[in-house]
Amino acid sequence: MSSNLDYATLAAVPAGGLPRTVVGALLNYRQALEQLGEAAGQPPYKAPPKAPVLYIKPANTYAGQDEDIVLPGDVPEVEIGACLGIVFGRKATRVSEQAALDYVAGYRIVADLCVPHTSFYRPPMKQKCRDGFCPMAARTVPRSEVPNPDDLAIEVRIDGQAAQQAHTRDLIRPVARLIADVTRFMSLDSGDILLVGVPAGAPRARAGQRYEIDIARLGSLANRLVTA
After folding, report:
1. I want to staple 100 with a disulfide (CB 3.0 to 4.6 A). Which of 1, 51, 87, 179 is the partner?
2. Any idea where the domains of the chain sit in the sequence?
3. pTM for this predicted structure
């Protein structure tokens, strides 16, 4: 690697509080895996996943609190994935489950927007990586203000009406274990965000509607969907 492009430069946190990397975990809620039913045992995998199933939300997907999210012309509606985002305070590589939370700076509400699809195992890049499909709350809530990230109620509202209620106690891999499992094979640096997963039954919304995500102790995130 060129001396003008070292790892420290690549790993630097971007300006404006944006993360260098956002990594998400699929099928990390018990109900989401249960919904697969017999499909979890079908080829090519023939069994439920034994390791985290991950995907990336690249920088083109980033959006902020109260920004309008433009839906492409071929996307009539999107799933509103209400995610707890783990924000790292320092580089985490092969950390133990017992020490995992020591690497966490805080938590942030993230909306993992996704085009509805039926494939669960292959990374759904086309569905999850459209422009603006990763809105993030303005504030990262310090870890000290969230005593137990595995005990947080989640609610999604569409146009003010309750559309989903979930809870992080239903995570298959709780926060510390997920961090340990993921950092076993990849490093997460300061400012990076790891999404714990999307609860089962993510509600759908279309252009002209506004969604709100509330997570206990973290506040809320809201955006309006608009046409291209």
Report:
1. 179
2. 7-227
3. 0.89
